[in-house]
Structure formats: C-alpha cells, structure tokens
Amino acid sequence: MAPGGLLCLCLFIPLLSQPVESCIPHSIQAQVPVKINPGYVVSQVPLGRCGREGLYMTSSDPHFTVKRNGTIVTVHAIVVMKQRSFWVWVTEGGGQPRRIDVQLTPDPEQVRNINETKRERESLVREYLSTEKFPWNLARKRSKRRWSPLPFSIIEHDLPPFPKDIELVGSDSSVNYSVFYTIRGPGVTLPPEKLFSVDRNTGMVRVHYAVDREQYKQFVFEAQVFDRKTGKETDRPLDITVLVEDINDNAPTFSGPLQFHVAEQSRTGTEVGVVAASDRDQEGTLHTKIRFSLLTGSQLFTIHPQSGMISTRSSTLDREVQTAIPVVVEIRDMNGASNGLFSTATATISLVDINDNPPTFRETTYKASIAENQADVLVLRIPVDDKDEENTKNWKAKFVITEGNENGIFRMDTDSKTNEGLLYVVKPLDYEKGKVIVLRVSAQNEVPLVGSAGSWLSVPVELSVGDVDEGPEFIPPNKTIRVKENIPIGSVLGIYTALDPETKSSNGIKYFSVSDPGSWVSVAEATGELKVANTIDLESPLVTNAMYTITIKAVDPSLKSGIGTVTLLIDDENDNVPVVPDGELVLCEEEEGKMGSVVVHAEDGDRSPYSAPFHFQLTEDGKWRLRDATNTSVVLEQAVAMAPGVHKVPLRITDLQNKGSVPDQEVKVRVCRCLGGECVSRRGSVGLGVWGVLAMLLALALLLLLCIFFVFACTTEGDKIYIDESSGGMLLKSNTEAPGEEVKSASLLMVPTSSDVDALDGSMKGAGLLDQKSITLPVGLGGLQTMTQQGMYQSSRRDFMTTQGQSSFYSTGHYGNANYNDSLFYKQSHLSALHTWETNGLYLDKKLGYFAGDSDECYAADVVRVFGYEGEGSAAGSVGCCSDLGDQDNLDFLDSLGSKFKTLANICMDREEED
C-alpha cells in the first residue's frame, strides 16, 4: 500500500469510531443506600445521542446487570459501606468494547448511623469485658491492630493505557513510623512477573498489563511495611488478594459426542440424547449460562433450552425413508441473549430399525409340478421383499404353510443368503389320490410386527402331480395277524393281496416271500394265501416282544413290484415246565452243629400266567428240607449230616398252572469243604494259584542265570594275573592306631617296616591270592597286635593297657570296619588305610589287565613295579614310586615340634611314669 493510502486509512478509522465515543460517557457517579436489594435501579447509561440498535452492554460486577435501554439494575442483594467501583462495557456490533466507569457512593447519613451504632455496641462490649464478671479478663490485653484491606479486583483483558491504579494498601503503623511498602509473590516476583507493583511511599498497588481470567482467576501476594530509618518491619506481612473479574470473552463449546440413536416410529416426546456444552467463563454468571436451540430439524425434534435434551416432536420417523437425520444445534451464552457468544454444530440422529414392514411376495400366485412317488425334493423357490434393515431379524423371512399340509407332506425352509422360501416334498405324492394340490404359504419374520404395520401376508401355491406307472400296492401296507403258538402245520393264517394303483385290480399279480427267518409261513403265488409251514414257537429267539415279521413281494405282469409286511402276534401256550439248569450245586459244609444249604433256581420258557411263581416239593423225606421259597427259587437245606460227595435230590417243580416235569427232576448237590466258594480236598491241600506258579518260574529263571554266570566266570581266559612270590606282598602293616580324618590321603599306602618284612614276605600265593597268615607283634604300653590274612581278607586286633583298663582295637575286611572296645566308649569308622587299599586296588586291576594283554615291550616307565627289601639298616626303606610315607617308625620329627609340644610330652611322660 502507498504511504498516502496508509495515511488516509489512519485518519479514517478515528472518524468511524467518533460517533460511539462521543455518545458514551467515560464515567457515572451514583449515590446508593448502604443495603441495596435486588431490582434496585442504580443509574442510567445516557444513550440519548446514540442509536440503540446494535449496542451490547455488560457489567463487570455480577451483582449488577445492564438492560438494553441502559438501566443499571441490582441482581443480588449487596451492602455498600464505602465507595464501590465497577465497569460497564458497551459494544457496538463487532467493534471494540468501550468502558464506562461506575462509582457507587453509599449514603453518608446511613453510614454515620451504622458507625454510631457500631461504636455503641463496641463500648458496651468493652464495658462488659472490663468488669470482674468476665472470667478471662481479656480486656486488659489489647492486641496490635493489623492492616486488613478487602480483596481488590481487576478486569481480564483490560484495555490500555497501563499501568492502572488498583487500590491503596495501608498499615496502621504509618501513624507512628515513616514507612515504605513492598510486595512479593505471584504476579510480582513469581510468574506472571511484574504484573503488579506498589508505590513505596503511598502503598498504591498498580497493574501493568492485561491478564486472562481463564488462566489466572486470582492473585495472592504478600505486602510488607518497613521503617524508613531502621529498615525493620513495623507490622506483620499481609496477604493481598486480587480477583480477576470475568468478561464474556469465551464462546461456549460442545463437550460431548453428537451422534444419537432413536427407534423409528417412536412416540412424540421420546428422549433422543443430551447435547453437552461448556463455557470457560466464570461459573454462575450469565457468561456461562448456555441456551440450546435447533437451527434445523425442528419439525421432527425439539431441544430443551437449558438441559440440551433432544426429544422427538413427530411420531412419523421412518427409517425406510431416511436412515439418519442431521440437525444443526446452536449453543449461546448470556442465556440466549442476542449479544451472547455462540457456537453451532451438526448432530446426527440415526433411526433404529423396527419390524414395521412385513415381507411381501413378488407374485400373487405360484405354480409348480412334481412327479408322484418322489420325496425330499425341492419343488419351488418363493422370493420375497422386505423394507426393513437387511440381515436383521426384522428382515429375515420365515415361511409357514397355513393350508393344505395337514398330512405333513411338505416342508418350508429359508435360504439364508437370498431370503427366499424353499418348498420341499418330504413324503411321496400319489397321482391317483390327487392330481392338483393347493397350498397357502405365509411369509413372516423372526420377530413379531411392531406398531400398526398390519398382518403377515400369504400367497396360494398350486402343485400339479405327474402320473407315474407304479407297481402293485398292498392294502394295507402292514398287516397284523394274531396266531397261537404250536398251531398245526398247514393251518391258513389269511390272505394278503395287492392292487394295481391304476386299474385298482389284483389280476395277474403274483406273490413271493422275501423275508421269513424261520420259514414258518408259506405264501400262495397266485392268491397270496398264507399258511403255517413250520411250528410257530413263542420262545424262539426269532420272536421279539411276541411278534414275528415276514416280508412279501407282489409282482404285476409288467414286472413292477410292491412290498408288504405281515406281523404275526403270537399268543403263548403252556408248553414248557419249570426246570433247574443242568450242573451240580455246591453245598459247603458248615461248622459243627450247623447244617449247610444251597439255593435252587428254576426257569420256565413260558410267560405269565404259565410261568412263575413256582411251587417246590421234595418227594423224599428225611435227609433234606426246603425253606425260604420265592417266585423262582427255594433254599435246599440238610436235615442230617451227610458224607462229602454228590447227592441226587428228587424235586418236583410246578408252575402257576400246576404243570411240572414227569418224572420229577433230580437235582445234583455236591457236599464238600469250600474255599472261596469252591470245593477243596479234606486234607486242606490247596493247589498253587497263578501267582505261585509265576513265582516258581521266576526263581528257576534266576537260578539258571546264576549258573550261566558262574560258568562264564570260570571259563574266561586272560583274567588271571600271577604275581611273583618274591614281591614285598600286598598286605601292608600299619602302626597307626585309630587314625583320624587328618590322615586320609588319597595316595596313602601302608608300607611295612623293616622289622615286619620277613613276616610279610611270601604272603602272595598261588594265582595272585593271599594265603592265611597270623602275626602277633608287640606294641606300645605292653600291648599285643594280632594280624590275620586270608586271601584278600584281612583282620587285625590290638590289645593294650590303659589307665582305665584293657582296651582293644579290631579291624577287618576290605572296607576297614573298625571297632574300639573299652569300658568307656565304642566307635566304628572307615579306616583311611583300607580306603586307600580299595582305591589302589581299582587302579592296579586296570594296570594288571593291561599287562596280561600286552607284551613286555609295551611297559611304560611309570607302571607299578615290585620293590624288594633294601637290606637291614637301610635308611631309605621302600623307594617305590607309590610310596610317599617314608619310614613310619622314625620319630625324629618330634624334636622339631616346639616348646609347647615338649611341655605336653613331659606331662604325658610324668603320668606314664606314675602308672
């Protein structure tokens, strides 16, 4: 833009704003009573020179409101004891708001009267406090008065110029001191910094820039007063509260979802949902009082102006016409006043489907044809239409045959994909019985109809039955004939014939038996006459529930055939007598003085009344008697003691008709001793059971395996190693008595001393085994040591005298079990020397096996060698590679054990000498 144009624009803007500024005063002064009731007219904003159209006026103090004509009215009751100020904001259209300062001065006469009354009351209180009646005598202590200004207030987004004076803070100490003031805290030294300041001399608090109430609702900072001369505080610090007064600078916003659902055809007044909204301005004022309204869709819905509840206005909502209805919602603060801030949004109300539309047929009549004698065949597809929502229960069809299916010949199903009706024939049709069949099919839904949608629709279905040349048919297809069992062979049971469906005649039809399991009935080929061919027996396994079924086939001249069944209902005859099943009954002998018994059961192939209950009777008296008879059994008991063996008991058994076997039956009863319900020998010998036989076989198998093992061990070659008799021997003498854990060395070998070599030489005999040898050696304290060796087994015993008496030490075996016996204790442990013997023995076994299988040239330099005795008086003793003990009898090391050991030795020697 050119500089000249910019200058013109700057000059033009003041001209536009000049009319409003000139017609609105800068301040208004009004005198009001101390107590102002709601509705009191405070003052009038002079708008005579201003047009009232487009003007919007609000009050910064929520206790007052400004009407459209400029009248300032009190909203809430308020007490004004001193000068009170607030602002009236005047806005024209969308221009900048203009501020009018309103200053209220209380009526001085009322204030004076109130103060006088207050002083009188205070005087009375002081007089009472000064009397002796007051228990605490608090009147004598006068507390220091404090400066206590009321909360100050500023307006958010206040217009320049800045800084602006807010209020004076003053301390009573300023009367006695020359003071200055400071403030600190939020808005001063803390964020937002440098918002407030104070005149050090006067105490006037100022604000330096505008703030947002939605960010800072109030500020609480601390004011301090100091003596100018000493710099000390003359009064305690005071908290100053500055309230930020709200202006309507925030439009309301939607705070919830705007998607709602309601069922179609709902009644008027049905609640749809609540529109939620909020406003950031100060709560409880008109700035946050929101009014809801609908800009569109008001012919179908309404909205509550205060709660925002949307309800239906019409009951004709139809989902099939419109599935979702958008409505524009407006939210406006200032309780919907035209000068209030507002927002709009679109709410979507979806209509929920109900079953208000029945399925409709596309045709008025359906026709189809089918041949007779067909079953489980699809005859017809019936399509339908439904306006309801697809793939719901309101849309899915269900077909019902309402007429013409009394015999259950047809079935209706629904195609789940196409929603079509499927008509099936489940039973064969007969052309001769009907050439045309008319059905009526009704189309319904899975759920009932809702509202005034009417009723289900139906349509006629006409089926034409095609004629087919059929085979003969038996009439009836299943015939029942009652007959007695054992009827004479050749007796006529009846005639069973078939007819040609077309001619209704039996001419030329022949009959054949297809199924007759017992060959009991013969069929006349030409006439279909039925005769008895074999004995009919009710007790035969071929009879089920007294019924016997045969199948007959009829064949016409064209070789077409038909099948019929004949069921014989067989009546029973008393042709069986009660019998006791074959076999022996076991009667177990009882204790002395008791007679044994056995239960006798009888059976009869006939049915009632030709069967049970049975009657039992003994034909011979003396040895047996009967008791405890039931329908089919009786207890047979000994009358006298009888010898073991099989006894025959004559017994007569008759059925309910007193029919029994002739001659009488003989029941075989074995009398014996029993074990587990079975007879055993009188000697009491019991045969081996299965487990006993298995145990014997297992023992024999183990014995056989042991013999094979010994044969294998005795015949194996290369396992015998011969050791030269001139070696030093394998059994070594130990002069260590009762060794402890400290001498258990993994490489320890008990090497014989020079004095024992002769006794141990030649101890290895034969094929590397040790012969028996006993050695008795003297030991310390006059004791004796006895060593016995036999093969690889060693035992050793030492007897010596102690102060408590005679003690013994005994060791034996490969594993060195040791016993210490005396009058005080007993101990058993593993000897370390014999542990070493076992370890070295395993090592030597491996080495000797290696020697037996390889030649002398393969010997290594570090294998086990045999070292002989080095000669009498040799200081080296045995110098084999496996010896690490040296001379065990050399006690020279005792001389180097130190003074403490010598002291102990002297004590022991003194005690030994005393002994």
How would you sum up this structure, described in words?
The N terminus is likely disordered. With 915 residues, the protein is mainly beta. It has eight domains: 91 residues, Cadherins (Immunoglobulin-like, Sandwich), CATH 2.60.40; 99 residues, Cadherins (Immunoglobulin-like); 100 residues, Cadherins (Immunoglobulin-like); 107 residues, Cadherins (Immunoglobulin-like, Sandwich); 99 residues, Cadherins (Immunoglobulin-like), CATH 2.60.40; 96 residues, Cadherins (Immunoglobulin-like), CATH 2.60.40.60; 28 residues; 156 residues, no CATH class. A hairpin with a 4-residue loop joins β58 and β59. The chain contains six helices and 59 strands. The strands form 18 sheets. A six-stranded antiparallel β-sheet has the order 54-55-56-57-58-59, with no helix packed on it. Strands 44, 46, 49, 50 and 51 form a five-stranded mixed β-sheet that branches. The N and C termini lie far apart (138 Å). Helix content is 12%, strand content 35%. It is flat, with a radius of gyration of 65 Å.
Give the CA-CA distance, first to last residue: 138 Å
Provide the spatial order of strands within the biggest beta sheet: 54-55-56-57-58-59
Rg, rounded, reads 65 Å
Query: SS-based structural class?
Result: mainly beta
Number of helices: 6
Helix content: 10-25%
Domain module count: 8
Strand fraction equals 25-35%
What are the segments in which pLDDT stays under 50 over at least 5 consecutive residues? 1-21, 132-145, 683-687, 717-733, 736-784, 788-793, 800-833, 854-862, 869-878, 880-886
Largest sheet: 6 strands, antiparallel
Shape descriptor: flat
